[in-house]
Amino acid sequence: MSGPLVSGETPGPMALPEAPSGLELPADRPRPPVASLRGATRELRLTAALTASLRQAVERERASLDLLLLAGLAALLSRYSGAEDLVIGVSGFLPVRIQWTGDLPFKELVVVADGALSAALANADLPFEALAGEPGSDDPARGLPFQVLFIGTGGTGTGSARLPSGERKLAVDLAFSARTVEGGEGEPRLLVTLDYAVDLFDATTAARLLEHYAALLAVAVAAPELPLSRLPLLGEAERHQMLAEWNDTASALPRRTLHKLFEEQAAARPDAVAVVWDGGTLSYGELDRQAGRIARRLRRLGVGPESRVALYLERSAEMVAAVLGVLKAGGA
Questions:
Q1: What are phi and psi of 86, to 5 degrees?
Q2: What pTM does this model have?
Q3: Helices (H), the chain
Q4: Cα separation of 321 and 293, whole Å?
Q5: What angle, 0 to 180 degrees and rounded to 10, lies between the N-to-C axes of helices 48-61 and 203-222?
Q6: pLDDT tens across 74-105, in order?
Q7: Of 96, 251, 265, 274, which sits most exposed with the smallest number of CB within 10 A?
Q8: Rounded Cα–Cα distance for residues 294 and 306 (Å)
Q9: Computed from CA positions of residues 140, 142, 148, 150, in that sequence, does the dihedral angle turn out positive or negative?
């Protein structure tokens, strides 16, 4: 498989016939008519365990670290957008088109990404100006065949996707890069940097995207035979928040029956509107009196505790009164 991703300063892009025109990523704001090119940065230091797993996968899969990171990014973007045809720029603004069909295992996506990268490098013979935007356009980013840039561990620059003029502004929506740094106790770790367009994304969204990238990579390299749909995006903290904290909605219920609570409301606000339907409105007092009449009738018919009463009514004020009447009579 391929070695380090392209790291030269000015490789040209390959032609991309019938390539997807854009990637529908969930953003915090609509895309402006003209991009401001303002970017901001978030970073995530991968755990020592994940860094080690990635390096083990390099040996096992006979793939470069950058190729594994690129395939992981393709899987992440696919999960975010639902697309199976992606164009990702690599260092030097070389567009790489990665396309597949179906729910591939991650290890097969690595092979697909390797072939796409090789094809892009073999066709890198056009000048950058051929894709850098329409002449005279007010938007320097307009016309780029990709919205996401992957610089990788061997890329040049500081992680910012720079325009040919050298202007240090972000010309894409997202730019990923990675480098090895020293971790705790001298253990090397990968530091993933994400530059993001502030026109579109908030800092919290960028941070969450990095966390999802790390969570996906952790399972992808540990179990590369898993299909892409089964690669998780949520880390332990976010999973706990969604499954435990946000579901902690238990509330103490009053130790009174439903019809008793209704009677209290009817006594306190008899003229307040209780039911609204096409034919008009019904106050709490009126509804309580109707339900009381139904309850007395049911009791005379033998309805009491443990009795079950069948209702056959259209959705209406009468149905509400009947339900309350059954409960007042002691039935269900």
A1: -125, 145
A2: 0.67
A3: 48-61, 65-81, 106-122, 203-222, 236-240, 258-268, 284-300, 317-329
A4: 9
A5: 50
A6: 999 999 999 999 999 997 678 999 999 999 99
A7: 251
A8: 17
A9: negative
